[in-house]
Amino acid sequence: MLSTDSSVIWPSSSSSSSSSSSSSSSASSPLLPPPLPPLLLPLLLPPPPLPPPLLLPPPPLLPSSSSSSSSSSSSSSSLPVEIAISPNNHEVHIYQKSGNQWVKSHELKEHNGHITGIDWAPKSDRIVTCGADRNAYVWSLKDGVWKPTLVILRINRAATFVKWSPLENKFAVGSGARLISVCYFESDNDWWVSKHIKKPIRSTVLSLDWHPNNVLLAAGSCDFKCRVFSAYIKEVEEKPGPTPWGSKMPFGAVLAEFGGAGGGGWVHSVSFSSSGNRLAWVSHDSTVTVVDGTKGSTPSQLKTEFLPLLSVLFISENSVVAAGHDCCPMLFRCDDGGSLTFVSKLDLPKASITRNISAMERFRNMDKRATTEDRNTALETLHQNSITQVSIYEGDQSDCRKFCTTGIDGAMTIWDFKVTDTHRDTHTQTHRDTHTQTHRDTHTQTHTQTHRDTHTQTHTQTHRDTHTQRHTQTHRDTHTQRHTQTHRDTHTQTHRDTQRHPHTHTERQTQRDTFLVRFIN
To answer: Fewer beta carbons within 10 Å, N or C terminal of the chain?
Structure first.
């Protein structure tokens, strides 16, 4: 680009100066040969001085991943890392990583309303933005300055989402006008024009994602629907081949439609897999849904116990990462049979540290917060507010090695998926071993306690029975012995009395008999 500009600027200035010099020399000395043709004259003159080094544009920085509404990052082993973000206003700030710090390098100011979508094309090094001012701009880096090109969207409501196609020859913009603007470059007029997909969209379009074939477009909207459209534009691409989603693809055709049958919620995010055969989306009713185009149109839906998810992304053909109002990315797996399962949270909570509260702090808390506790409002997760976007940082959707998340808390977190996966397996194994050991200890303790209780109860009952039996036998023996002894003593005493006074006994018997006779008579 610099050599082209030089070739345009330098010959014009050289030819004018040389023509003036030649005319003056010919006027002073008419015997000189006629001047050479203008095209050959600059070759005989000394080359003009080079422009200052500070005016040279830096080499283009190609981002390796793109993102929508909040951020766009680039990573490469040989090129610097850059990120484009919008701080919830009408500006776009581009930061470049320098060591461990992020340094602001550019500010893009063209929108009149706050920006709602950003996407960075990694191959062509162009940034597309859309905003609440119903406009979209394509930014290109020229001479070290990002220059905008207006896009003719033809919408009467705010734009909500923007996404480059895989070949970067077109992009799609969702809006509150209940339509999708598919934009492509018109070289004759040197601007970007659009075609509209309207039917059967009945509400605001919240999310978009392109199929790898650069033709199919998935859209999620506020009418609880997830649809797959054809965005084929014959002016910029060849006729596509058949796919599992359909074979005939005229522009605007609806190839698939899911959701909205008596339930659901706003479709916040959609994502195609690397092969394009699977489509995932998340809704405001805390559900995650995956459908396989090669196995019919029956989606596999998982109702989670978490807060609503706002972003979803395929990181492999069978793995999905989603995040949202729980401030933590979560991993889901979809097996070959189409069954969707929740694996785990990827943000393991840090151990909280409790500290003692002094008397002065306790008094201050009572005075300010009407409580005696020192309440810490910080969350255990890295993000302190809702995560609005998940995007690939290193790798691609078939083999993602790192992904990044951005949130309302203004933070961007880069996650090493392989390390996270290994750490999760280690944590799961540790948890399993701990659970097994705890179960074993609990079982042993319970068994010992039960055995001890049973033994004590049996021993007590046996002791009680033995004691009762012994007491009864002792009582019986004592009673028998006492009765026998008493009877023996009585009999002995009577016998002694009889021997001692035999007449007394006879008289008493006679008197008793006489009394009985009288009583009878």
So the answer is: C
Cα-flanking dihedrals φ and ψ of residue 451, to 5°?
-65, -40
Can you tell me whether residue 80 is helix, strand or coil? coil
Q: Give the chain's end-to-end CA distance (angstroms, integer).
A: 164
With H, G, I as helix, E, B as strand and everything else as coil, classify residue 165. Answer: coil
Rg value, the chain, Cα: 47
Cβ–Cβ under 8 Å, residues 218 and 260? no
Secondary structure class of 491 (helix, strand, coil): helix
User: How confident is the prediction for the chain on average, in pLDDT?
Assistant: 75
Please return the burial class of 507, using the count of CB atoms within 10 Å of its CB with bins 0-12, 13-18 and 19+: exposed
Neighbour tally for 2: CB within 10 Å: 12
Give the sign of the dihedral formed by CA 385, CA 387, CA 388, CA 394.
positive
Task: Give the Cα separation of 355 and 505 in Å (integer).
Answer: 104
Looking at residue 225, what is its pLDDT?
94
Averaged pLDDT, 335-352: 82
**Secondary structure element (H or E) that encloses residue 12, with its range:** helix 2-28
- The DSSP-derived string for 384-425 is SS-EEEEEEEEEETTEEEEEEEEETTS-EEEEEHHHHHHHHH
Structure confidence at residue 140 (pLDDT): 95
pLDDT at 376: 66
Q: Which two tokens stand for residue 279?
A: 């489509």
Query: pTM value?
Result: 0.65
Average pLDDT, integer, range 356-371? 71
Flag the least confident range among 47-61, 131-145, 494-508.
Answer: 47-61
Q: What ranges make up the beta strands (E) of 222-318?
A: 226-230, 254-258, 267-272, 278-283, 287-292, 300-303, 309-314
Convert 419-445 into a string of H (helix), E (strand) and C (coil): HHHHHHHHHHHHHHHHHHHHHHHHHHH
What is the SS3 assignment for 21-79? HHHHHHHHCCCCCCCCCCCCHHHHCCCCCCCCHHHCCCCCCCCCCCCCCCEEECCCCCC
Maximum separation of any 2 CA atoms in the chain, in Å: 207
